[in-house]
Amino acid sequence: MYLPLDGRGPLHGQLVRSLKDAVMTGRLPSGLRFPPTRLLAQQLGVSRNTVLAAYEQLRAEGFMQARVGSGSYVAMPGAPVQPRSEPPQRVAPQSAYARRLRRYHDHAHMPGRRVPGALHSFQYGVPFTNPLLTSAWARALSHAAVYTQPHYPTAQGLPALRVAVCEYLSLRRGVHARPEDIVIVTGTQQAVSLTARVVLDEGDEVVIEEPQYFAVREALQIHGARLLPVPVDGEGLCTDLLPERPPRLICVTPSHQFPTGALMSLARRRALLDYACRHDCWIFEDDYDGEFRYDAQPHAALCGLDDSRRVIYTGTFSKVLFPSLRLGYIVAPPGLRDDLISAKWVDDFGSPAIEQAALAHFLADGGFERHLRRTAKTLKQRRDALLGSLRRLAGDAVDIDDSHAGMHLVVWLRDRNVAQGEAFIAFAQSRGLGLYSILPYYFEPPARAGLLLGFGAMSVAEIEEAARVFAVCLGEMDWGSVG
Ligand SMILES: Cc1ncc(COP(=O)(O)O)c(C=O)c1O
């Protein structure tokens, strides 16, 4: 912490003035924890008694609040004090990249955020977690913290994790990769950024599914790619609609099309690989939750069929574990491997080593397998509860795309247009129910009103209650008032 001392009077008084200034100007915001006295004394090169005396005075003046057992926190006595100066006005975008950032990304309005005030929320992207996973992960982490070297990790990823990922992929996803082909990344999002840097120049064309996952779409747009949306149907990407002029890259979610849930048929998979081979383009396969299929064994990934090594396969631990982990992997085609590793090094020198080591251990010792089996069982119960309740309570008003997989469903409001759908979402929100529109996942809005309902983090009881509220809202909505 930077705390300038003004050299006037006793040291503890100088420290009090400096800390108060930091609080009043917002550099030390309310609620932040003050550093422990011993640490601050060491950092400033003063005695601990000086810091203790300063803290005592801050407490007396109301700038500090002690919480039993957890330290002392910044408090703002009286009315909130304005920072001394206004935050700087945003300048004009300083680069073409910044221009695209502002054009394509709006941080304040990201799709899928929790609806404020909602009692029940069908929010997508919230993970399924359980206390068993939390304690197993805590053990793995603290163990890894002890034996992990403090040096920079290798940019490609810890060898032990790459070996464990290969075993998992071979067993579960039909992908037979070698540890040297794996690049550990911070998730699909980094995988798509690195891929874009390595295979795309600004203005290059990229085929993307319509509808599609908005975050991958934004990453490509912001990179400067020209996107060519190609529709999907019940068999996945419509390969007969691929453009005549070949793109550089084709992005697909073949195991569980996002968001429709379609499983890409074998014929389409072969057609796609054949097209990529004939036209010399790359395929980015986003296998984000192919693991969780409830009707049958999970289907093998597209990458497993790829003899010509054109598929850049990406998996993530965001769904099978939890997204705050920020770990995933690329199975790099041999021709791109070194470029991808270099791009990863330039980006961040490598992903955090303790988390990688803990994950390698978790994968290797069977804890992960146990977690997967438990999770798949629970998610199936939740999906069945949502499907069953919606069909029972609202079956004549909705059409449901049942994908037999994953942690979300797409639900269409029968005979309702997009404007009515958006009005219904607002109405449900006023009744404490969080619903999510399908619109952000389309380039061109669909003809009817659709919802993307995530159920991963809701218990069966909560799902049933939320479905009941959903049905009540459907019945009470004044549809005639919306065009
Ligand atoms: C289609 C799709 N791909 C990938 C991801 C995961 O991205 P990441 O690995 O960056 O967390 C998600 C998460 O919601 C997703 O919906």
Can you describe this structure?
With 483 residues, this protein is of the alpha/beta class. It has helices at residues 11-24, 37-44, 48-60, 96-104, 131-147, 159-172, 188-199, 214-223, 266-279, 317-320, 337-348, 353-364, 367-394, 418-430, 460-476, and strands at residues 64-67, 71-74, 120-121, 182-185, 205-210, 226-233, 236-237, 249-252, 282-287, 311-316, 328-331, 398-401, 408-413, 433-434, 449-454. The protein is globular. It has 15 helices and 15 strands. It has 3 domains: 11-74, Winged helix-like DNA-binding domain superfamily/Winged helix DNA-binding domain (Arc Repressor Mutant, subunit A); 113-125 and 377-481, Aspartate Aminotransferase, domain 1, CATH 3.90.1150.10; 131-365, 3-Layer(aba) Sandwich (Aspartate Aminotransferase, domain 2). Helix 5 crosses helix 12 and helix 13 (367-394) runs parallel beside helix 15 (460-476). The strands form 4 sheets. An 8-stranded mixed sheet has the order 4-11-10-9-8-5-6-7, sandwiched between helices. The mean pLDDT is 91. The structure holds pyridoxal-5'-phosphate (PLP). The site of pyridoxal-5'-phosphate has 13 residues, from helix 7. GO terms for molecular function: DNA binding; DNA-binding transcription factor activity; pyridoxal phosphate binding.
Could you write a compact summary of the structure shown?
This is Bacterial regulatory, gntR family protein. With 483 residues, this protein is of the alpha/beta class.
